[in-house]
Amino acid sequence: MRADAQRNRERILDAAEEVFTHRGTAASTEEVARLAGVAIGTVFRHFPTKDDLLAAILKRLLARLAGDAATLGGADGLHVFFRRLVEQAAAKRTVVDLAGVSVPAAVGQLGEAVGELLRQAQAAGTVRDDVRRPEVMALLVSVCQGALQGGWDVELQERTLAVIFAGLAA
Amino acid sequence: MRADAQRNRERILDAAEEVFTHRGTAASTEEVARLAGVAIGTVFRHFPTKDDLLAAILKRLLARLAGDAATLGGADGLHVFFRRLVEQAAAKRTVVDLAGVSVPAAVGQLGEAVGELLRQAQAAGTVRDDVRRPEVMALLVSVCQGALQGGWDVELQERTLAVIFAGLAA
DNA sequence: TACCATAATGAGTCGAGACTCATTTTCCAA
DNA sequence: TTGGAAAATGAGTCTCGACTCATTATGGTA
User: Fold this and answer.
1) Which of A32, A95, B62, B153 is the most exposed place for a label (fewest CB within 10 A)?
2) How many domains is chain A partitioned into structurally?
3) How far apart are CA B44 and CA B31, in angstroms?
4) Which of B134, B150, B167 sits opposite A166 (nearest CB)?
5) Which residue is nearest to nucleotide C28 (CA to C1')?
6) pLDDT tens digits for chain B (170 residues)?
7) Cβ–Cβ < 8 Å for B136, B79
8) CA pair distance A37, A33, nearest whole angstrom
9) Do residues A95 and A111 share a domain?
């Protein structure tokens, strides 16, 4: 791939993440192009459809989250990750709006990472043994959705997470 | 209001609820008109903008939920209501997609009803005393969102609700 | 440097869907 | 029954955004 093409691809991805995570996926490709400083045609050369572009940034986003999760661990790693993710969701429109687009591989990667955090928390006795990964993921997604949509303040977020953490606790 | 106008208004609301709760709010007004058996112009005569139509069915929906909640009570009224709402959300796109449209009065009414269920559950000792209404509402909305989006099966739904109920329990 | 394959450009096409309005139809009060 | 106000009709307008492509520019190689 030529150097300019490589550079533009990165710029477009950065711009797309910025635009879509703030304005939602309804934002126009035109706007992404403008922010990236390229012509609209260039965006479509790199990502033939808008969905391709969405899938690409979702993949990057999930990979980053999985990487984040991998650096955590121990008794409260799961709790830290949970809180961090919810905070992000409330500020931006991260995972939430992108739900329609599916990137199974990337989701799987995140699932693995969360599973590991769960295992460690259970080993440390912070989380009940009969809790499994699927419901943890379900809660994670749900609360991110809720936080984004409801515009929670810090206190509400804390109180809501407190209920969930109590439900997970041994 | 003339009799035919009254009749059409009802038909349009019913059709709109059917269409929007199944296809999401992106469905076209055209489709609503077709299902209602009226011309597109008639829809716009009754509801000048699409948002007006969305607000109208959201209001009806919330009022109905509040009515539902009012018939419940006792030790597990809150739990029943919670489960029922999540089941609905998973099947249809009820409250979820309509989040953008705000009908404060209707939301307040539902909040009152949920608050009453919470009070009764606490009186019966089913729910911890330090849990308050806002986080219950937040959890309710979150889980509905998650259920809709994730396409949960029955088991996942049960396991997820189990965590939340455990978190609420005394 | 000269060449050309690769990439960028952006005006233009296309379709979809919200909304309009001149015309026709329907209700209902007198 | 009938006059006319209220309501319904639906083809048409308008806007917006995804996507195209003929043309121009550019990076890299011989």
Assistant:
1) B153
2) 2
3) 13
4) B167
5) B2
6) 999 999 999 999 999 999 999 888 999 999 999 999 999 999 999 999 999 999 999 999 989 999 999 999 999 999 999 999 999 888 887 666 666 667 778 888 999 999 999 999 999 999 999 999 999 999 998 999 888 888 789 999 999 999 999 999 98
7) no
8) 6
9) yes
Q: In this structure, are A111 and A137 located in the same domain? A: yes
Category of B94 on φ-ψ map: left (φ > 0), alpha (ψ -120 to 50) or beta:
alpha
Q: Is residue B53 part of a domain?
A: no
**CATH code for the domain of B34:** 1.10.10
Q: Which nucleotides of C are covered by protein (CB under 7 A)?
A: 6-12, 16-22, 26-28
Do B163 and A132 count as a contact with CB atoms less than 8 A apart? no
What does the pLDDT read at residue A95? 63
Q: How many CB atoms lie within 10 A of CB B124?
A: 15
Q: List average pLDDT for each run of 10 residues in chain A, which is 170 residues long.
A: 97 96 92 98 98 93 94 97 91 70 81 96 97 96 87 93 96
SS3 breakdown of chain A: % helix, strand, coil, rounded to 5?
75, 0, 25
- Report how far residue A26's alpha carbon sits from residue A109's, in angstroms, rounded to the nearest whole number: 27
Q: Do A159 and B135 touch (CB under 8 A)?
A: yes
Nearest protein residue by Cα to C1' of nucleotide C17 = B28
**Contact between A156 and A146 (Cβ < 8 Å):** no
